[in-house]
Amino acid sequence: MNSNPRILVTGGAGYLGSILVPTLLARGCAVTVVDNFLYGQTSLLDCCAYENFAVVRGDVRDERLMLPLLKKADVVMPLACLVGAPLCAQKPNEARSINLDAILMLLKNAAKSQKFISPTTNSGYGVGQAGVFCTEETPMNPISLYGVLKVELEQALLDAGAISLRLATVCGVSPRMRLDLLVNDFTYRAVVDRFVVLFEAHFKRNYVHVRDVARAFCHALDNFDQMKGQPYNVGLSDANLSKMELCQEIQKQIPDFTIMEAPIGKDPDQRNYVVSNAKIEATGYRTQVSIQRAIAELIKGYQIVRRNQHANV
Fold first, then answer.
1. Domains (ranges, CATH) in the chain?
2. What value does the mean pLDDT take over residues 166-192?
3. Residues 227 and 35: beta-carbon distance below 8 Å
4. pTM for this structure?
């Protein structure tokens, strides 16, 4: 990999991109971002000082816009996405065209030498077996349109020799904040409301900090030839937590946070699984931000941010 690759990042002004793009620029990469700035965010303004940064306001589904940009890239990181089960259920046609078709169009037109590193999701595991860790060999069992599209996309990516990063539930502070992610949401409720009502509190998931996700992309970039054509779970190995355990971690930092369990009612998101991150760890990758540190920084962030500004749905 040349030391200053030209990287095309779609959706680069989003929650993850707003951390990843400055990280790539600081490493000396030339970065072009395509984003429609759907949420009016200004999270990449600091990047404008870099000479090797370019930004295009546009739609990733626009072939006439995307193909000339694709030609100039050594690496493509397709982050543009309607993220999460609720949003995709609300807008199924848009979800398919953005989350799947737009990336398939890039793959179809890419040269063999161009490298793709793409986020997918471990939500494809759906409902796991109690106490059995999901590995990259575990059959996928998506239970939402979001999961189904990501699983379909991943197959196309792997067939093309890409690296697929199956992200755990991402958390932490980003310049383009999102409050609808589980850790971010529960911590916000603790700070602002001082209580939460949990449905199906025993449901487990894996978590990862947004800066550790950016680190995983850089790791994949540096180790592309050894990692290509394969999926990797990316998460905190000591954070396969139930919703109740997560709230108890928050409660350690906000003692007057009241946790209530709803005796009836269902979580609209029925995912429940534990995940092994051993495969990517075997390549030398390590997370650096614990769930406790993520919660601590969110508590600070919520002195700045309020809900009406930062939700995807």
1. 6-194+201-239+269-309 (3.40.50.720)
2. 96
3. no
4. 0.95
